[in-house]
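writing this on my phone so excuse typos. first protein, seq and then structure
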Amino acid sequence: MQFPFSEKTISVSELSAAIKACMDAPIFKSLEVFGEVSGFKFSGPHAYFTLKDKDSQLQCVCFNARKTYNPKDGESVIVKGSLDYWTKGGRLSFQAASIQPVGQGALALEFERLKQKLNEEGLFAAEHKKPIPRFCKNVLVLTSKTGAVIRDIVTTIRRKNPILDIVVRDVRVQGEGAAHEIAAVLKRVDLLGYDVIVIARGGGSLEDLAPFYDEELVRAIYAMSTPVVSAVGHETDFSLCDFVADMRAPTPTAAGELVAYDYNELVVQLRSDVDRLTLGAKRAFERKSSRAQIAFDRLRVEATSLYADRERKIERCLQSARQSIERKIVNAEKAYELLAGKLDGLSPLKVLSRGYFRLMSGERTISAVNSVKVGEEIKAVGGDGSITATVTDILQEKDKFAQKGGNHGGDQEV
């Protein structure tokens, strides 16, 4: 088999060796490079970082960096060293021999100016902060679904609370346009009824966290009606979102601890409170019952005494009424006997017993002479019997006087 090699064809090793030889040239030694530090981190005693400006960036390594100056992300420095090409990895890097601080980097200065401006407008004022609900029912998390941040938050929440509703909204948390995307989502979800919104991102360099220093996003958080928790970067990172949010969590895990109440602890506390209230109610009932029993006994004694007095008074009244009635009965009996005696004295039977007779015509008593006729049968009822007779002659009172007058020669007139 014939390979299509030409006289210009070289191997990877040959090219790498050529690049290495170029990098070893004196021109690339003892250089001083000015730029802004980004992503400074240690791996053992060595430090790795990026040196950048507005248009370009350069990977750097500083061996035994703990013996030299260790800059912060965003800080402007002058790095002295040499270019190096690692042939096995095919990577170009700048080996720093020393790092000299110059001042804060352009990004850091820009963010500081924006922070001062927003602070003077009152966006970071404490009186604007809204309280985070103690017992959240639902929480919205704005972060990247592909990162470890959301797993940390969900795991932390679920360890404390199995019933809290967690909604995750996938947003970009790095790169150009990320701040605008998060701000737009915040405006859409503000009135959807979430108890709290968590904006979360893991740690990173200053330029990685740049979206959370964006003025549009800061003003969107300030305008929110829903409480917002900022959980951006590591514990030592402070973004502008941290200052404007209602609460800052130093890490995403801490954000989960902040928004989730401890369900099991609450259940234990509620049971303890119920037991305590039940015991308190029982004791209160016993005290009230005891007082009520004492009051009832006292009332019964007073009522018994009162009714005993009333009973004695009633008994005396009844006795007095009975005696009065008996006296009236005795007096009435005496009056009756007196009236009966008088009535008996006036009785026709008494009169008849003295020799008088009662004249009757049939069932009618004869009270006048002119009420009978000659030949009429009449009955004379006496005290010891009766006599039946027939009227043969009627003599009235005027006839009687006339006869008397004739006998006296008419000298008397009646």
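second protein below, same order as before
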Amino acid sequence: MLSKAKKFRLSSFQLIMLSFASVIILGALLLMQPFSTQERIRTPFIQALFTATSSVCVTGLVVKDTATYWSTFGHIVIIALIQIGGFGVMTVMAGIAMLSGQKISLAQRSRLQDTISAPQLGGIVRLTTFIIKYTLIIELIGACFMAPTFVRDFGIKGLWYALFHSISAFCNAGFDLLGVREQFSSLTTYVDSVPINVTIMLLIVIGGLGFVTWDDIRTHKTRLSRYRMQSKVILLTTALLILLPALYFFLVEFHQMPLSRRILVSFFQSITPRTAGFNTVDLTGLTQSSQALTSILMLIGGSPGSTAGGMKTSTLAVLLLTAMSVFRQDRTTHAFGRRLSSDTIRTAFTIMVMYVNLFLFSGFFLSLYDKIPLETALFETASAIGTVGLSLGITASLSIPSLFVLIFLMFFGRVGGLTIIFATLRSVQKDGALLPLDDIAVG
């Protein structure tokens, strides 16, 4: 009997996947109810499921305008799902357990380690407490900076708007309450607002850095030499992924804008695809090359153990470092005086292959099934699997099969491809014997 119980015990990966799925289903059931909408009508299950998945997976793609369709209760449900998805369900459960005075078991600590991509099990409870505490503080600070502008425009309701958008930005979700006052409104009405733009950008970047990098910054301050190699790689890659695309957008797009607005928009357009989903300009007005660059940025996403999705900045860095080692004919891949393991390289390559294939084949499906241009379909699938939320305006018009494809992509992008695979495929343990060595020509 004991062996059977052990056999059917859920792994950490299975618990993480099922916990996200459970919260999504619960959120969908709440959003289906008439009191979740302003018109007091019952929302079809597929639309409620899509919205709940987009919320928990901090994506931002919508089939119903968030501001005008959902009621105050619906907005509260959505922002609660975003906060849970940003933290990670296991982190929220651990936080509740700690508040109630319960002791965190070794199994729970292991699941927390997988959830936040912590390098070691030791100190995981302290790190979780730090994450919850500073997340709430940063979101509150962000709301305080945006509140004067929103209160000026919406009265006392602006306080709620400030808090909602601060949580949505920090969790890299991209949901907004501004309504479609212009085509694809989002933050287009605040394109010149420095407080809104700068606060949103900072929240997106901070939320997307990763909790382990936070811990390095808090512990070592400006002493970069003491940071973990992972944090150094993440900070450098993030900086390059902000500056280089911003320079591109500044040189290629927005020539008709005044200089100050052009700089602000260029940086915002560089930051928001990874992976927040707010926009201050009409994305359909961008050139095809800029839309393609945006799709690439959406696929890359944020950093591991953060509120962001995508392949992750560290995955891109490992792939580029490996390519550089091949160019230099080095035997190993290394960075900042440290060597990367072959397992890390294999994992990075596997993640890249999964994301690119799902992005392409899902785009092909949307294009063929819904008869939409391929580049538009690929933009949508990149947004979904990168959990971004940017769109060229086709989400609400997609067929039910295409919506289910996007739901899967959002779930895959937030929970993690390897987590889903490890949770669904049975682990096969092999002995230590190695097969005979052979080789094939490549390149």
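The chain has 19 helices and two strands. thats all i got for now
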